[in-house]
Amino acid sequence: MPLALLPWPVDVDIRPGALRLDISAPHHALSLARYDVIDGPPEGYRLDIADEGIRIQAASAAGRFYAQRTLLQLIARDDEGFFVPHVAITDAPRFEYRGIMLDVARHFHSVDTIERLVERAADLKFNVLHLHLTDDQAWRLALECRPELADRGSSSSIGGDPGGHFTRDDVQRIVAHAAAHHMIVVPEIDLPGHTHAVSLSHPELTADPVLAPSVLEVVEEFGGGLPRTGEPYTGFAVGFSSLDARAPGLEEVLREVFAEVARLFPGPYLHVGGDEALGTARSDYRAIVDMAVRAVMATGRTPAAWHEAGAADLPADAVFQYWGFLTPSTEHAELARRALERGGRFVLSPADAIYLDMKYDADTRAGLSWANGPTSVRRSYEWDPAGVLEVPEERILGVEAALWTETIVDEATLEHMVFPRIASAAEAAWSRPLGSAERDWESFRARIAGLGLLWERAGIRFARGTEIPWR
């Protein structure tokens, strides 16, 4: 059975023998290591384990942290106690951006839940937490400049479930906890669509709902009623809402909002959404996205957006997040091509691979299946970032797994949908391309099986499907 390492390192040299650890708990092994600073990739490290002891060399605190995560995965136990195999590992990430996105708009999730997600994602060497803070169902961020947005727009969730929002203190706590685990936080204020919650406090800034046939079909399938101006929306439908490009004062509001968001979240990126604006005319879409980008750039941050924003005039250093399928539709491929022409970098979140809210199979209790049907663990793994779009690898900033929460009502359900498929995204983001040493399905499923006991001890309520030979 291979070493239970996830994501798989760049270079692993397994040697005969093992080092016995005179410790009472696995985490105590970290204090036994000798640490040295070396030149090298910012997040890279070298880990050597021999009879002489444990040596970690890294160029930064982040590299040291990732070496410690690898060391903890290597610890095993038998009748004689804890031990680690003799091994030499040289490692550094393939991509600089390795993210997980949590939608807190469709269903609200607490700071405690987010902190636990950060810890578990960091164990797999993720370094970005993307929070989808606003949508049709709610506005989850309290702002001093516009307190009415959260006061009136956060009272509920899909299905009429309880709502909530984050205070400034909550945000500071999330940002600090992420930083302690070498993660940045990317806040998303979604526009010009997905903005029905804005209409609850600012109807003068929004257009009337556009009840296209696709909206009526979703209402018929999932219920939730039709969206109505001035009333909270608790259904599943998308694409009916829009900001009004001609609303007096809209750009001023966007400048105020993004200026305060930038003060709350110190990371390099501010996400402006831009997806599924089906009820927005093309010219209005461009005008509103341009307003938002100007507001972001005034803060000195880099704008990020879903790939539909390729239709607008984003700057050359913008980040485009692709959420289409592994085999892109003609429309999505064209939008990605336009983004590429503008010089943007890409974060890849293919929906039929690493949308973690997709069902595992037809019997999965929670989740949806619109992304080419259910997504098995194997399908979540067997793809490579370089093969999704005709984008040079140097233009791929990274990979991000996404968890939308239409059906994710509590932390137990969240964990079940995230684990084990989050490990697929971790390996796509960190390790060498699919088909390299140990980067194949059989190796991955065996290594996941080896981590099952660690996840169990950590209290993670993961999905125990039959694809993995759990032990």
TrEMBL record:
Residues 95-278, 290-432 form the Glycoside hydrolase family 20 catalytic domain. Its EC number is 3.2.1.52. The keyword Hydrolase applies. The keyword NADP does not apply. Residues 32-92 form the Beta-hexosaminidase bacterial type N-terminal domain. It catalyses: Hydrolysis of terminal non-reducing N-acetyl-D-hexosamine residues in N-acetyl-beta-D-hexosaminides. Keywords: Glycosidase, Hydrolase. It comes from the Bacteria. InterPro entries: Beta_hexosaminidase_sua/sub (IPR025705), GH (IPR017853), Glyco_hydro_20_cat (IPR015883), Hex-like_dom2 (IPR029018), HEX_bac_N (IPR015882). PANTHER family: BETA-HEXOSAMINIDASE, BETA-N-ACETYLHEXOSAMINIDASE. Belongs to the glycosyl hydrolase 20 family. This is beta-N-acetylhexosaminidase. It comes from Microbacterium nanhaiense. The lineage of its organism: Bacteria, Bacillati, Actinomycetota, Actinomycetes, Micrococcales.
